[in-house]
Amino acid sequence: MTDNAVSHAMFTSKFPPSTSYPEAEKLENDICLQLAMGTPLSEVAYAFEDEFEIEDEWEAMRGDEPKPDDLQAVIDEVVAEYRRVVTKPSEDALRLELFERELGERSIAFSFNEGFDAHEGAVEGAERAEELGYNGYAYCHMQDVARLIESGELYIGYFGIDAEDEDAAVAIGRQVFETLTECGFVPEWDGTLDQRIRLQNLRWEVPVKED
User: Taking every annotated instance into account, which residue ranges of this chain make up the domain DUF6891 (predicted)?
Assistant: First the structure.
């Protein structure tokens, strides 16, 4: 975990989240990170199935780490600890939910924890905006959310529905910035497309996402 980070509650638990995503750490820590990122419980096992079913995959990901006899038993143990520690959404998690609703009032979609990197995150945001008939979108991809859990820092990208219109994109960014402020966040942004909007000192915690 980085210095001066806002610590997710699970960092003081029996199974702290991994901090080198997408690189693999101990299986229990990687499972915890999946839960912390809001992966639905039914999909957690799926994220590790190939490693268990294909020996070469396990060796490539885990090296000499002993393979447990039962993946589901390990998941159940981590889930029990996570449920003990994280019993409700944190205030910042609730604020981000409010932020998404308020963006919708401005005809801006919000894609969160979708897409592996900036390109995929933007594609997810654009597709959601098109489906909803909105004017633009904001997005945070999976690596952003992993960083948020580790450090309390979150970057939010944005763009208009017309990928060629940079003026419209900046206008969307301005509305995203204003909405964050209205929701109680303290965003940082230089007002240009060269920079995503940055939030610091967040504690984003969500309970286990049930099926």
Answer: 43-205
User: pTM score > 0.70 for this model?
Assistant: yes
Q: How many other C-beta atoms are found inside a 10 Å radius of the C-beta of residue 132?
A: 13
CB atoms within 10 A of CB 41: 14
Q: What six digits make up the tokens of 89?
A: 């959404």
Coil, helix or strand at residue 154 = strand
What CA–CA distances, in Å, run from 129 to 107, 124, 139?
8, 9, 11
Cβ distance 198 to 161 under 8 Å? no
Q: pLDDT digits over 46-104, tens only? A: 989 888 888 899 988 998 888 999 999 999 999 999 999 999 999 999 999 999 999 99
**Residue 160's beta-bridge partner residues?**
136
